[in-house]
């Protein structure tokens, strides 16, 4: 496979400017470092060398102070090198945004104008407030609620056990609420692990039955939801969370057979959120599956009743005696209760957020795909402008490919982040991909085309009619926007830089800058974070810097790309069936969740078609 790399011009960077000044004044890096140390700035020769080679940039307070000393040494105007640094890299010294959390400073600095340091304090506060609202939190009501809720974490985190069956401790973060338990009691953790092992095993244990098998994503969802459930029960009623206050040691998964426990949790959620949502109904449905006759895991493990302990206000000693003597009767009562609660919740639940809200400005255009492509074009424009370190350029190209692949393939983020890449002309066999439950990007030398093959079993809806009895998904990537050239550059230069000395996971998209024992392959949270950061940097138009592609855009994750594709097809064809094919889903899913197709747009499409008859 031989592909030409994209021709990306490399304009003069900050390192070239600094190196030129050093030579012009007959200085050397070693002598300059010694002079800076005498002046009180501890900048090593190696660090200066990295600046000159654009391997790193001054970003900390002491580094910016050293630049001012270099300007004075060479007789340059005050702020000359600092302003060059800002305009070429977007970095701002830490003291300019010292009130911003450390993990947000890089993105915050990206959106600050070059002259931020010389602006009046009131204008600086205005700019920082705009960035906080539009870049980090967004202006939606759900974002405001979410930002407030995450400050008071209460979830118990059930981790996957290691090889010795020991549970890894969860470190407590000082920034979270005191109600945050982190590590659950060992007995409860083992019970949750037993449930998940039962639901994810290839075959159920002998003598037991189940309805359906969980994949890794379903198991992780169950862990998260049960962590929230038990965390709420154990949280203090006097704290910010306002939980029930049950003793952690009294908690066992067996309490899920009692309707009073579920009623408390559902009503607590409503009180916390302000209304009922689909989440409460899904949790009641989960409760029903646990006690279902014949296949429920709790019903088939009646021995768990021996672990029950009274919880004042929820479970009495009489309730426990009944459960221990007539476990099936208690499960029958819970199954009927869950059925009735589910129907009642269906009538009162509300949509807690609009999936279209963050990208409303894109979906409102005649061509949502063309509008979203403005983000990828902004990324490439920024790369071609130069001034980036090799690592920053690798991150930018990776973001470009993430969005391009999303627009072409319409895959869910799980399939995108788990996409493997064939590093030779011999692609992985379909059988091997089925076993791995992953797709693969592969090069076809006979057609000189990149193609993506994903087995049906890797999809969330792999048993739907779209896959016609389990046939794999196959899509040939079109070579638009120099896509093939950027894939070649990413595989040859950028991806190896991101992998570094770590073990290569084999996925096309890899993280970078990880700890020694970290993983390079993406999980759900990290993939969402990197996508959202790319949108925040290149997609959101900033009126103070005139950077960013789209006015009115809000931060969002990779799932929104499916809304863009479905809406585009609906606007162009009016066909829900074709929109479903575009994102490999069903018509009911398009009608309920995807595709913003307003009545006025339907009428306009019909009138356009009818209008053609009058031209004859």
Can you characterise this structure?
The chain has 616 residues and is mostly helical. The chain has four domains: 91 residues, 434 Repressor (Amino-terminal Domain), CATH 1.10.260; 39 residues, no CATH class; 163 residues, no CATH class; 185 residues. It contains 25 helices and four strands. The chain has a four-stranded mixed β-sheet, with helices on one face. The protein is globular and about 90 Å long.
Number of helices: 25
Question: Could you give a short account of the major beta sheet?
Answer: 4 strands, mixed
Beginning-to-end CA distance, first to last residue: 52 Å
Rg over C-alpha atoms, rounded to the nearest angstrom = 28 Å
Report the count of strand segments: 4
Instruction: Give the amount of beta strand, in percent.
Output: under 5%
Quick summary:
The chain is mainly α. The chain has helices at 14-24, 29-38, 45-52, 61-74, 80-89, 105-110, 121-137, 141-149, 186-200, 216-234, 259-273, 278-290, 317-325, 327-348, 360-363, 368-385, 390-409, 413-417, 430-436, 483-499, 524-539, 560-573, 576-582, 587-592, 599-611, and strands at residues 420-421, 440-444, 449-454, 473-476.
Provide the descriptors you would attach to this structure in a database record.
single chain, 616 residues, mainly alpha, 434 Repressor (Amino-terminal Domain), 4 domains, 25 helices, 4 strands, globular
Q: SSE layout and pairings?
A:
Blueprint (H helix, E strand, L loop, with lengths): L13 H11 L4 H10 L6 H8 L8 H14 L5 H10 L15 H6 L10 H17 L3 H9 L36 H15 L15 H19 L24 H15 L4 H13 L26 H9 L1 H22 L11 H4 L4 H18 L4 H20 L3 H5 L2 E2 L8 H7 L3 E5 L4 E6 L18 E4 L6 H17 L24 H16 L20 H14 L2 H7 L4 H6 L6 H13 L5
Parallel strand pairs: 1-2
Antiparallel strand pairs: 2-3, 3-4
Helix pairs in contact: 9-10, 11-12, 12-14, 13-14, 16-17, 17-20, 22-23
